[in-house]
UniProtKB/TrEMBL annotation:
Gene3D superfamilies noted in UniProt: Aspartate Aminotransferase, domain 1, Type I PLP-dependent aspartate aminotransferase-like (Major domain)
Entry keyword annotation includes Lipid biosynthesis: no
Transferase keyword on record: yes
Cofactor: pyridoxal 5'-phosphate
Pfam families noted in UniProt: Aminotran_3
The organism's place on the tree of life at top rank: Bacteria
Homology family: Belongs to the class-III pyridoxal-phosphate-dependent aminotransferase family.
GO molecular function list: pyridoxal phosphate binding; transaminase activity
Protein known as: Aspartate aminotransferase family protein
Organism from which the protein derives: Hyphococcus luteus
Length: 444
C-alpha cells in the first residue's frame, strides 16, 4: 500500500467539489429520529434527510437483513443471474400497486426511476406505431431529478437554466397552487381549472404528439408539499384517457408510506399508468429506485425486441433485500397508520403557529409530507423578498436548535420560501413536541 494513499484528516482541504456553502459537521452516527455529529451534538432529523429515512435510522431488523444478504452475496449482474430478493421485492411492490400495475423495473435512485418511466413510455408508443408521440408534459414548479431526461421534465428554473439547450426541455403547465388563488371560486372549481390546463396544453401541442403527463401527486422539494384540490386528480386521469396520454406519477418522495398510504395515488382512488419510487424504498439504507408499470404497457415493449434500458446496479440483491426489510418494517410497526395519526397532529400544531406568526402564509401537505410557507403578507400571499434569504436563514436558526428542516425558494410564476417538516414515520407525540419547541424558537 503506497504510504500516503490513505492519509486523510478532517482539517485537510476537501476534494469534494459539490459543496456550496460552508462545510457541515461530520455525521457520526444515527438512531431512530436522531443524528449525532462528530462533536457529540444530537440533531432531531425533522426532514428525514431529504424525505428519505422513512423508518428512522439504524433499524436493527433492516441491518440484520442486509447483513444476512451480504454474507451470501451482494451482487449478481442482472443479465447473468436472477436473484431472489429482487423477485420478492417486485412481487411485494406489484401487490401494493393499483390493479394492473404489476411489472417492476429496478433502478438505484429517483432520477433513474423517472428516466425509466419516460423511456418505457417512448418504447410503448413505438411498439404501437405511434412514432410522433414524444412530448412529455410536466408541471412547474416540479422536481423529477438531475439526469438530463428527468431534468427536461423538471420545472425549476435555477436547475434547468444552466443546461439550456437541454437534450430537449419538455412543455410544462402550472402546478395547481390553489392556495395562492384569491378569487371566490370553490376548491373543486379550482382543481378542475388547473387540470384543464393539461387539456389546453395537449390541444396546443397536437394530441398525436403527446406521449405522457408526469406529476408528483403531492409536490415535494420544489413546491413544498403541494396538494391539489381533490377534483384535480380524477380530471387529470380523464383528460389523459381522452387523448391516449400515459399518466406517470413520480412517487419518488410520496411513495412507500410517506403520506400515510403506501402510494399517494391511493388517496384519490385512481390509478396512474406508470409509477416511479425511490427515496423511502431504500429509506437511507441503500440506493434503490423502482418503476412500476401496467402489464399491458410492458408486454408489447418486451415483445417488440425488449426494453432498451438498464442500470448496472439495478436490482442488486443487497439493495432489494434492504427494500424488502424496509417494507416489512412498515407493516411490523404499523407505520402508515402512525404516519396518518402523527401527521395529522403535526399539521394541526403547525396550523396553530399561524396565530403566533403572521408571516406564516400557508400550512399544507398529507401524512408526514408537510410544509409551511413564509410570506410578507398572508392576506395577499405576497412573498418575502428574495434577498431576505428567509429559506436559508430559518434553516440555520433551526440548525442552531439542533433541528433539521428542509427548505427551498419556489420558482415558476411565484417565488416564495417554503419549509418541509417531515420527520421519519416512526415519530411519536413527544417528537412532535420537541420539533414544535425548537421550530417555535427558530421562528421567534
Ligand atoms: N423525483 C422526486 C419527486 C424527487 O423528490 C427526487 C429527489 N428529490 C427525485 C425525483 C430524484 O431522485 P434522486 O435524487 O434519488 O435521483
Amino acid at each position: 500500500i503506497p504510504a500516503e494513499l490513505f492519509d486523510w484528516s478532517q482539517n485537510a482541504p476537501s476534494h469534494l467539489f459539490y459543496q456550496t456553502g460552508g462545510r457541515r459537521p461530520f455525521i457520526e452516527r444515527a438512531e431512530g429520529v436522531y443524528i449525532w455529529d462528530a462533536q457529540g451534538r444530537r440533531f432531531l432529523d425533522g426532514s428525514s434527510g431529504a424525505m428519505v429515512s422513512n423508518i428512522g435510522h439504524g433499524n436493527k431488523r433492516v441491518l440484520d437483513a442486509m447483513r444476512d444478504q451480504m454474507n451470501a452475496t451482494t451482487f449478481g449482474y442482472r443479465l447473468h443471474f436472477e436473484n431472489e430478493p429482487a423477485e420478492r421485492l417486485a412481487s411485494v411492490l406489484s401487490k401494493l400497486s393499483p390493479q394492473g400495475l404489476d411489472r417492476v423495473f429496478f433502478a438505484s435512485g429517483g432520477s433513474e426511476a423517472v428516466e425509466s418511466c419516460i423511456k418505457l413510455a417512448r418504447q410503448y408508443a413505438l411498439a404501437k406505431g405511434e412514432t410522433k408521440r414524444t412530448e412529455v408534459i410536466s408541471r412547474f414548479p416540479s422536481y423529477h431529478g438531475s439526469t438530463f431526461g428527468a431534468l427536461a421534465v423538471t420545472g425549476y428554473g435555477p436547475l434547468n437554466d444552466p443546461f439550456a439547450p437541454m437534450v430537449r426541455e419538455m412543455p410544462k403547465i402550472p402546478a395547481p397552487r390553489a392556495y395562492l388563488d384569491r378569487d371566490n371560486s370553490s376548491d373543486e372549481a379550482r382543481g378542475l381549472r388547473y387540470a384543464d390546463m393539461l387539456r389546453g396544453k395537449i390541444e396546443e401541442l397536437g394530441p398525436e404528439n403527446v406521449l405522457a403527463f408526469i406529476m408528483e401527486p403531492v409536490g415535494g422539494a420544489s413546491t413544498g408539499a403541494l396538494v391539489a384540490p381533490d377534483s384535480y386528480y380524477q380530471r387529470v386521469r380523464d383528460i389523459c384517457d381522452d387523448y391516449g396520454v400515459l399518466l406517470i406519477y413520480d412517487e419518488v418522495m410520496t411513495g412507500v408510506g410517506r403520506t400515510g398510504t403506501f402510494l399517494a395515488a391511493e388517496h384519490w382512488g385512481q390509478s396512474p399508468d406508470i409509477i416511479a419510487l425511490s427515496k423511502g424504498l431504500g429509506a437511507g439504507y441503500v440506493p434503490l429506485g423502482a418503476m412500476i408499470a401496467r402489464r399491458d404497457i410492458v408486454d408489447p415493449v418486451v415483445a417488440n425486441g425488449g426494453f432498451m434500458h438498464g442500470y448496472t446496479y439495478a436490482g442488486n440483491p443487497l439493495a432489494c433485500a434492504a427494500g424488502l426489510a424496509v417494507i416489512r418494517e412498515i407493516y411490523e410497526q404499523d407505520l402508515m397508520a402512525n404516519t396518518a395519526r402523527i401527521g395529522a397532529l403535526l399539521k394541526s400544531r403547525l396550523d396553530n403557529l399561524t396565530a403566533r406568526f403572521p408571516f406564516i402564509g400557508d400550512v399544507r401537505g398529507k401524512g408526514l409530507l408537510l410544509a409551511f410557507e413564509l410570506v410578507a403578507n398572508r392576506e395577499t400571499m405576497t412573498p418575502l423578498p428574495k434577498d431576505a434569504n428567509a429559506f436559508a436563514k430559518l434553516v440555520e436558526y433551526a440548525y442552531e436548535e439542533q433541528l433539521i428542516i428542509y427548505s427551498r425558494r419556489t420558482h415558476g410564476g411565484y417565488e416564495g420560501d417554503h419549509f418541509l417538516v417531515c420527520p421519519p414515520m416512526i415519530a411519536t407525540e413527544s417528537h412532535v413536541d420537541e420539533i414544535m419547541e425548537k421550530l417555535t424558537k427558530s421562528l421567534d
